[in-house]
Amino acid sequence: MGVPIELSLIIVIAAVVLIGAGIGVAFLLRGRKTKPGTYTSPRDENDPAPTGGATATDAAESDVVAPPVPVAEAEAPEAAAEPATRIEVPEPALGRLARLRARLVKSNNALGKGLLVLLSQDKIDDDVWDDIEETLLLADLGTDATTELVDSLRERVKIEGHRDAEGVRSMLREELTKLIDPSMDRSVASDRRGDRPAVVMVVGVNGVGKTTTIGKMARVLVAEDKDVLLGAADTFRAAAAEQLQTWGARVGVPTVRSDVDGADPASVAYEAVKAGIDQEVDVVMVDTAGRLQNKVGLMDELGKIKRVIEKQAEVDEVLLVLDATTGQNGLNQAKVFSEVVNVTGIVLTKLDGTAKGGIVVAIQRRLGVPVKLVGLGEGADDLAPFVVEDFVDALLEN
């Protein structure tokens, strides 16, 4: 008995539909590849982590770390950014230095200009030397450095007898340069260490602009043709991760961040460094939450972040961001942070518009570490490497 023609047609149509659906599913599955260097969707609590791989909790050993949080790397900036957004080309270091020097010259610089006026007088008696000492102390140079500089100037004036403007300027340039110490290594770790990236932690108190500073540092490094990755380990401040990711996306730098508000910062930092190792970048910069130096629990947490990172890679650089306008209070902050995480360099922001240029000397004397970067404005490229000779020349410029 033959199959009715109507039933045959139905069977044929159904077969065609099923074959077409199968091809469509295969096409969709083939297109769902995880992008190299990015994390897959976060697992839920019933989906165990694969065995054999180290986690932040495993790495911490004696450190108490919260269970690994879902961490995802930002999509490549060109994919994550709005269609109209384009990757910016940061200004090179030479252009920054020239512009920042010009801005410092225009600032209210009482240190250099005040000393030039005092030392150019026809008669330099004890009253003038007292004024010179007061000028240095008001500029936050610090007692020891002030005494050393005044003694050196007294001796040179007595022997050389400089009185003309150019002679005084030359003498001051030499003594101030010597005081700031051009022999200190002011380079920022940004080259790969064998088979791993350089790791930089950025720390500081609340409100000094750490996240913004990291964004500006990323621009400096990109301008030097470095491959950079950012780690958003400030998990407590609302929108900190978004802010950091935005800075990175502007110059094509990816950001590793947590999908969970208030996540354990040590775990995020660990995952960021792990991603940097896997992706073979030049440098990983880890942002941390601001914390007051007198809060013992928060400072202990900062130490834990560093220890957890170092289970897989050494922290090559710890940069402390300081506001130049805080003066001597900045020295107290620096001392405590250095004790907890061994600060290797200072980033000094808001140096323009202040007479406190002496804080550069005071900080270096207190910590024995150099000022490596300075910021003189709010612009995206208003951060530059600190060059002693340029800084001193700007102080003494008319």
TrEMBL record:
InterPro entries: AAA+_ATPase, P-loop_NTPase, Signal_recog_particl_SRP54_hlx, SR_rcpt_FtsY, SRP/SRP_N, SRP54_GTPase_dom, SRP54_N_sf. Its EC number is 3.6.5.4. It comes from the Bacteria. It catalyses: GTP + H2O = GDP + phosphate + H(+). GTP binds at residues 204-211, 287-291, 349-352. It is found in: Cell membrane; Cytoplasm. Keywords: Cell membrane, Cytoplasm, GTP-binding, Hydrolase, Membrane, Nucleotide-binding, Receptor, Transmembrane, Transmembrane helix. One of its GO terms (molecular function) is signal recognition particle binding. The chain crosses the membrane at residues 6-29. Residues 370-383 form the SRP54-type proteins GTP-binding domain. GO terms for cellular component: cytoplasm; plasma membrane. One of its GO terms (biological process) is SRP-dependent cotranslational protein targeting to membrane. Pfam families: SRP54, SRP54_N. It is an enzyme of class 3 (hydrolase). Its main location: membrane. Residues 48-63 have a biased composition (Low complexity). The keyword Transmembrane helix applies. NCBIfam families: ftsY. Part of the signal recognition particle protein translocation system, which is composed of SRP and FtsY. Belongs to the GTP-binding SRP family. FtsY subfamily. This is Signal recognition particle receptor FtsY.
